[in-house]
């Protein structure tokens, strides 16, 4: 399912080529979830009994430095390791009964961390959120619905869901704005944007279907990305404001604010993710929003200019009349 990187490409500058190292890295990348060094040694020992524990430990350390593996501490008195290749930074749920862990990501938590660190003028280097407790399987005996460490597809699924929700709320916003706008040119801009959102929505929905073909049960698997704020649609508030009654200029300004917020949101989170399909979805979407933003800003400027010219010509048309009435 996952395309593993070529070990040679991952070697840091000055790293020596070692077939043992390559073998260990390849075995590690085939595993899912969070492995201790001993777990990895046991697996490797099964394949090749000539590899020593010390070599496995050293290679793990090297993988961490090379950015292939990440060290995680679940409070068990030893580290565990997970892939960092095509695997976004995330938070963990850890079962105290079976020691298994599962992963999630949340822009809401990240936003809180950003608020707090900014308020305290603190530079964060790492944020760890770990929730300890009892997993569904240990509590109910019912088999968990997602395999361990199964995140890439869930990540792409949830990234697409958020992009689709945003696109839908954008479509709603521009459709409403086109209906309300008096200025003919402004109306055609909103119509054009609504058309674009509709087209992109179709593309995203098709991409979502392709994803479902890769795993028929994908829809029912647990949520990976918790983006509560964004999931409601970044344009929903703007659409709400439109319905309270605004003029053309205000409608354009609301559109600009929504597109800017959406562009920033998708860019900021997209850049944070490790290389993955979810990251691509976010960054492509951020680009699209930036184009819309630029278009709206151009339109806003030209509307303001048109209004100024109109006012000036009204004034000059008024002037002689005022003069004549004064006589
Ligand atoms: Zn459990
Ligand atoms: Zn993890």
Structure, explained:
Strand 4 and strand 5 form a beta hairpin. This protein has two domains: 1-85, Arc Repressor Mutant, subunit A (Orthogonal Bundle), CATH 1.10.10.10; 152-313, Ferritin (Up-down Bundle). The protein has helices at 7-10, 19-30, 37-47, 53-66, 107-119, 136-140, 152-180, 184-214, 228-231, 236-243, 248-272, 277-326; strands at 35-36, 69-73, 79-83, 91-95, 101-106, 130-133, 225-226. The strands form two sheets. A four-stranded mixed sheet has the order 6-4-5-7. 63% of the residues lie in helices and 9% in strands. The termini are far apart. The protein has twelve helices and seven strands. The chain has 327 residues and is an alpha/beta fold. Bound molecules: zinc ion (ZN) (2 copies). One zinc ion is lined by residues 95, 97-98, 100, 135, 137-138.
In CATH, what is the class of the largest domain? Mainly Alpha
Strand content: 5-15%
Low-confidence stretches: 1-8, 11-15, 321-327
Q: Can you tell me the CATH architecture of the largest domain?
A: Up-down Bundle
**Can you tell me the CATH topology of the largest domain?**
Ferritin
Label the overall shape: elongated
